[in-house]
Amino acid sequence: MSDLQCPARILLARHAQAGYAVRGVLTDAGGWLTDVGRAQARALGVSLRGERVCTAYTSRQTRAQRTGEIAAGVLGVPSAVVPGLQEFGVGSLGGSPGRNPVVLEVFSRWDAGDLTARCPGGESGEEVVARMAQALATIADRHRGETVLVVSHGGAMRLAVSTLATNVRFRELIRWRPANAEVIALDIDSDGWRVVSEQAGLEIVDPA
What we know:
By secondary structure, this protein is α/β, with parallel strands linked by helices. It is 34% helix and 18% strand. The radius of gyration is 16 Å and the shape is globular.
């Protein structure tokens, strides 16, 4: 990221409720928004009308794209896909039950701070953080002093924010499970990431 004269405000949202061809299994599929999900996406847009959002960006996965498109339509701003914002990949575990003990072990290691863990054939936590950081830095560099909506995914969000935010404790944020269409606000500049919202129920601390 180039040196920013002022931070970009990133309103980082999890996608709205989605449906899948097979429920209860691990998948890298994009899914689609349910009726509830479409209502959540519209409500997301309505809730951000006072934030002066200039544009929306989404991951390439359909559930995030559609969430961003609907919210952006409410706000009257454009929406575009940015590489790197997608959910972590489950690799060869695709199609297995969501409570697969292998993926639960990966989650447990991530919660403990071991981001080298990965699903077989999938991404490590470190790789997810790196691509999320690059994607959001690119967006922030493009929107100095502006506010943008970014629609991503719960797992990728908590890995990236818990690792990179300078004013929230890792152990507190890594256990955060964002609800569908929940937003966490970040200021991002050359000094790093800072959480500036309160709705996630997080304790904001001074940088270490």
